[in-house]
Amino acid sequence: EVSHRDGRPSNLERFSWQVEENRSCLFFFLLFLRLFPMTPNWFLNLSAPILNIPVAQFFFSVLIGLAPYNFICVQTGAILSQITSLDAIFSWDTLLKLLAMALAALIPGTLIKQYSKQHLKLEEDKHAQLLNGKKSM
Questions:
Q1: How far is CA 78 from CA 63, 70, 75, 90, in A?
Q2: What is the mean pLDDT of residues 82-101?
Q3: Residue 20 and residue 53: Cα distance in Å, rounded?
Q4: What number is the average pLDDT over the span 83-96?
């Protein structure tokens, strides 16, 4: 049982629902989670095999998604001798750039999801017309 005692869903359950909801665009969803500055990467790493996330999608989302974090680490190392406060590393400018990268990763997944819903609706409408046409004959 992964629920809380009071009936609330656990983080793993909520994440499982989100993964299933975004299965058609899973790579972009994972990429968004990796790029979003507040997502706990350790949780993504531990929950991926439990939620049956394909290894290739997991690998490439880690490879691409952790690039901003690695960039900050390298940037920090390069200017460490000149730094006087942490504000030089985690400025609003840097945070906004990271947020923009995370939101950019959402765009392809959102477009795929919208296209899938529209395509599915068109298929359902055609199917309904066929059924209605057969019933009237």
A1: 22, 12, 5, 15
A2: 76
A3: 10
A4: 74
128 contacts: CB under 8 Å, gap ≥ 6: none
CA angle, 92 then 95 then 98, to 5°: 150
Domain residue extents for the chain? 11-106
Terminal CA-CA length for the chain: 52
Q: Which two tokens stand for residue 106?
A: 């959402």
The three state secondary structure string of the chain is CCCCCCCCCCHHHHHHHHHHHCHHHHHHHHHHHHHCCCCCHHHHHHHCCCCCCCHHHHHHHHHHHCHHHHHHHHHHHHHHHHCCCHHHCCCHHHHHHHHHHHHHHHHHHHHHHHHHHHHHHHHHHHHHHHHHHHHHC
pTM tops 0.85, yes or no = no
- Pair 67, 97: CB distance under 8 Å: no
